[in-house]
Design brief:
Number of domains: 2
Strand order of the largest sheet: 1-2-3-4-6-5
Helix content: 25-40%
InterPro entries: CK1_Ser-Thr_kinase, Kinase-like_dom_sf, Prot_kinase_dom, Protein_kinase_ATP_BS
Largest sheet: 6 strands, antiparallel
Shape: globular
CATH architecture of the largest domain: Orthogonal Bundle
Keywords: ATP-binding, Nucleotide-binding
Radius of gyration: 21 Å
CATH topology of the largest domain: Transferase(Phosphotransferase), domain 1
CATH class of the largest domain: Mainly Alpha
Oligomer: single chain
GO molecular function: ATP binding; protein kinase activity
Protein name: Casein kinase I
Number of strands: 14
Pfam family, one: Pkinase
Order of helices and strands: EEEEHEEHHEEEEEEHHHHHHHHHEE
Bound molecules: adenosine-5'-triphosphate
Number of helices: 12
């Protein structure tokens, strides 16, 4: 990538490389703003940048989604110029030595469910929810990377049908069981991946992760995921987490999730464990760090959380602690238009569902 893009953006650094392209930090010489520029080769088909443009245009002005400043083609590359955000949750997790407090994880859950609810309210599913898709800027958690998104509504108001053999979509570690079963994904699958992301942040690993990466093939992970019972993934942590996962796993393919219930459950955890230990929305300083934990040693991490009272940090040294307000779900705009989504979402009359092993036919539109 040349240092100057379209005579306007001065490339300063490579922020990271994804599966399909790279993200650079740059300065907009016209506005003097810091921006992030995502590029991919024009030969990539289907273009994930094209999809990102469509989604970001739909989400314009929504809280927690980066602004889309510009886009185009330059030197055989599709590019988009985005609002520059901070670190992603995976990087922040590493900065905190792979140890976040229960309140911190629940707080991330509150923000994640708000972003997912907004995306779904725009009739879009993400299909690749994972910690690295959430970036922090100021006190807000942003959702990024819309290259795998899909609209779950077609012909104006019909829900997409539940087809099979669709091919694997997502990231192995965080993918839903339906993604492994190659079943068409819907809103419930974004929520299942969110639960796995939070479990990873609580535990430092996931039970289907093997320290020997050659054992982490799609088929092996899929089998281990399917065989695991629900509570064991959140064992030793507040029951609200496993209740949310059980709720999400029980959702019908077509069903509009109760985002407010999930948000309120996270909020209950924060109320129980206290807001004062939430450090993640501030830049970590050396003395914020807790004892280093090996992220691959599941038992150590879990033991640490089991005897959890307060995070192992010297609170007198925390000057900038963010006391994050988590308001009631009823007052948040993301959860208000739920009725409208449900009403808009019809199922084609003759469609057959295969949920939970049962076979039944929808006779009426709902
Ligand atoms: N608007 C942004 N501002 C700052 N950094 C960003 C922005 N968007 C993405 N990034 C960072 O750029 C890096 C690459 O992101 P990208 O979404 O292309 O791939 P990824 O999520 O790392 O991988 P994959 O494509 O496999 O999911 C990540 O570190 C991400 O945090």
């Amino acid at each position: 990538m040349k240092n100057l893009l379209v005579n306007r953006y001065q490339i300063q650094e490579l922020i990271g490389k994804g599966t399909f392209g790279s993200v650079y930090g740059a300065i907009d010489l016209k506005s003097k703003k810091q921006v992030a520029i995502k590029v991919e080769n024009v030969s990539i088909s289907p273009s994930s940048i094209e999809k990102e443009i469509i989604v970001l245009k739909k989400l314009e002005g929504q809280e927690g989604f980066p602004k889309l400043y510009s886009y185009g083609i330059y030197n055989d590359h599709n590019y988009i110029v985005l609002e520059k955000l901070g670190k992603n949750i995976s990087q922040i997790f590493k900065d905190f030595s792979y140890c976040l407090s229960i309140s911190e994880v629940a707080y991330l859950g509150c923000q994640m469910i708000r972003r997912i609810a907004t995306l779904h309210a725009h009739e879009i599913i993400h299909r690749d929810v994972k910690p690295s898709q959430f970036l922090i800027k100021g006190k807000t958690l942003y959702m990024v990377d819309f290259g795998s998104c899909k609209s779950f509504i077609y012909a104006g108001s019909f829900h997409i049908p539940m087809t099979e053999d669709v091919g694997f979509i997502g990231t192995l570690m965080f993918a839903s069981r339906n993604a492994h079963a190659k079943i068409q994904l819907s809103r419930r699958d974004d929520l299942e991946s969110m639960c796995y992301s939070l479990a990873y942040l609580l535990r430092g690993n996931l039970p289907w992760m093997d320290s020997d990466s050659s054992n982490n093939t799609e088929s092996k992970i899929s089998l281990r995921k399917a065989m695991l019972s629900d509570p064991s993934i959140f064992e030793g942590f507040p029951t609200e987490f496993s209740q949310i996962l059980a709720y999400v796993k029980g959702l019908n393919f077509y069903y509009c999730p109760d985002y407010g219930f999930i948000y309120n459950s996270f909020k209950q955890i924060i109320d129980k464990f206290g807001k004062s230990s939430i450090r993640i929305l501030k830049k970590p300083k050396k003395n914020y760090r807790t004892k280093s934990l090996n992220p691959h040693k599941h038992s150590e991490n879990q033991k640490n959380h089991k005897k959890y009272t307060k995070p192992n940090i010297d609170t007198t040294k925390i000057i900038d602690t963010c006391i994050c307000p988590t308001v009631e779900s009823d007052t948040l705009p993301e959860f208000k238009n739920r009725k409208t989504i449900e009403n808009n979402c019809k199922i084609y009359k003759s469609e057959t569902l295969h949920d939970k092993g049962k076979k039944y036919t929808i006779t009426e539109e709902n």
